[in-house]
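Before we proceed, please read the two lines closing this message. Tell me what the token row says about the fold.
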Amino acid sequence: MSSDEAPSLSEPRRYNRKYSIIYRIFMYLLFAVIIVLAVINLNIYSWYNQTKENYQDAFLRAENASYENSNLIAQNENLKTEYELLKNQYSKILNQNEEILEKIEQLKNKNKELESTNKELVEDNIELQNSLKTAASIGIKPQSYTSFEGISTRDTIEKGEYIGKFLGTFYTPSAVECGNDKGITRSGHPIIPGISIAIDKEYWPFGTIFYIKGLGYAVAMDTGSAIKGKYRFDFAVFDRNFANQLGKDYWDVYLVKLGDGNVNDISL
């Protein structure tokens, strides 16, 4: 064997050293890869935890939103129900309002009819009073008297306050009944047939205006020896037969105006 073909003693060592270096490099690379993978896994794990927390938070918010949405839906349903109830009530109120308006219109028409009827009754009352007072002025006239001009037309009869039933009689300003035929009342004013009445001055001052149902308005202007008490009057007429026909009776009396003792202005 030649020297060229003889194996070198250093070749195995070089071979082992070469593979040892490669192995070390491989191990370093493997370690580096492991470190990189560990870092990557750590980052992935951290991202996963963060994502999980975000997801859980989002899930809770979604659950809360779903719960709130359910509440809103329930409230909306309640509002719809209440709206329908209010709508029905409003419809009923509208119908009732229409009925009320119709009744008001009917009442207005009825009131117009009543006003017209009342006006006719007032006019009839005035005419009857004027007729009665005209009848009261027919007969033997005293020396002084005042002719009543009549009650003017008006919309209502002012009766005043009801004060009770009075015993009423009728007299003439004749010498037989009054001792003279001068026709001057105790108030100092001439008698007015159908208007003047004698009363008890202790209860009613001169000038007091009464409304006597069936006789009309009367004014306290005179007194009489037989006229005593609060619920008593004597009505002046000129004809004795007429006074006898009217006789003695109880009459409903109303106080229109309390006098002050004077008969200066007779306003009926």
About this structure: Residues 11-136 form the longest helix (126 residues). Strands lie at 161-171, 196-198, 209-212, 216-222, 232-236, 249-257. The chain has three helices and six strands.
